Chromosome partitioning protein ParB
Amino acid sequence: MTGPSSSSTPKRASIGRKPAADPASTWVRQADAPENVAKASIFTARLTIDVTPALRGRIKVIAFERGVTAAEMLRELLECEYGGGQS
């Protein structure tokens, strides 16, 4: 049996360039954009309600027909009914 000679030095692999950012990381960093920060300051609370699957479907279809998201449509509805700053 022969062992490694003490005179030889181990060869190291070279380190390559840093990999480019993956699309997911780029998407996450977009949340720091000023546009999103301003939008988040307007709507800061989350409201969860339970509705039937049929009602959820109708809400989503109507929102799609109007060209808005269900959240936007429901915010407008709640603002009309309960907005105005009166307690």
